[in-house]
Automatic annotation (TrEMBL):
Belongs to the Nudix hydrolase family. The keyword Magnesium applies. It catalyses: 8-oxo-dGTP + H2O = 8-oxo-dGMP + diphosphate + H(+); 8-oxo-GTP + H2O = 8-oxo-GMP + diphosphate + H(+). The keyword Metal-binding applies. Keywords: DNA damage, DNA repair, DNA replication, Hydrolase, Magnesium, Metal-binding, Mutator protein. Its cofactor is Mg(2+). This is 8-oxo-dGTP diphosphatase. Residues 4-132 form the Nudix hydrolase domain. Its EC number is 3.6.1.55.
Length: 143
C-alpha cells in the first residue's frame, strides 16, 4: 500500500527590514529545539492557504488573509513511511504582533543567515529558495 503524502504549509513572514521569522520547536515534538518556519499540516478537506492562515493564528496569534500568502517553493521531506511535501509561502501583510504561543522562542533574521541555525533538514533548501526569491525581487517590489 502506498502512503498518502502529508502536506505541510509554512510561512516566511517578512518584516519591513527584510528579516524573516523562525520559531523554535518545543520539547517532545519531532525536530525539538530546531528552528522552523511557522506552519503545520493541512487537514483533510482544508485549502492549503486557509490551513496556513489557521496555523499562523494558532501559533503566533496573527490574522492573515489567505490572499496575502505568496508561493515561494516546495521540498519533499519525511520518510518513505511518512512522506511529506512542504510548501513555503511568503507573507508581508499580517495583523497583530507575533507571539510564541506554541514555540519555545521566536527569532527574526535575514534569510541568508537562517542556514546558520539548526533547522529540520528540509528547511535548508527552503531557506535557500527564500533567499533567491528575495534577491530576485518580489512581484510586490516591481509594482
Ligand atoms: N511547521 C513546520 N513544519 C516543518 C518544517 N520543516 C519540517 O520538516 N517540518 C515538519 C515537522 C512536522 O513533522 C511537520 C509539521 O507538523 P506540525 O508542526 O503540524 O505538527 P507536529 O509538530 O505535531 O508534527 P509531528 O510531531 O506530528 O511530526 O513538518 C517547517 O519549517 N515548519
Amino acid at each position: 500500500m502506498t502512503n498518502t503524502i502529508i502536506i505541510v504549509v509554512a510561512a516566511a513572514l517578512i518584516d519591513s527590514a527584510g528579516r524573516t521569522l523562525v520559531q523554535q520547536r518545543p520539547p517532545g515534538k519531532a525536530h525539538a529545539g530546531l528552528w522552523e518556519f511557522p506552519g503545520g499540516k493541512v487537514e483533510p478537506g482544508e485549502r492549503p492557504d486557509a490551513a496556513l492562515a489557521r496555523e499562523l493564528a494558532e501559533e503566533l496569534g496573527l490574522f492573515v488573509e489567505p490572499g496575502a500568502l505568496e508561493p515561494i517553493g516546495f521540498v519533499q521531506a519525511g520518510t518513505p513511511e511518512r512522506p511529506m511535501l512542504l510548501l513555503l509561502h511568503a507573507c508581508r501583510d499580517w495583523q497583530g504582533e507575533p507571539a510564541a504561543l506554541e514555540a519555545t522562542a521566536l527569532h527574526w533574521d535575514r534569510p541568508e543567515a537562517l542556514a546558520a541555525l539548526p533547522m529540520p533538514p528540509a528547511d535548508y533548501p527552503l531557506a535557500a529558495a527564500l533567499a533567491r526569491w528575495l534577491a530576485a525581487g518580489m512581484p510586490h517590489d516591481r509594482r
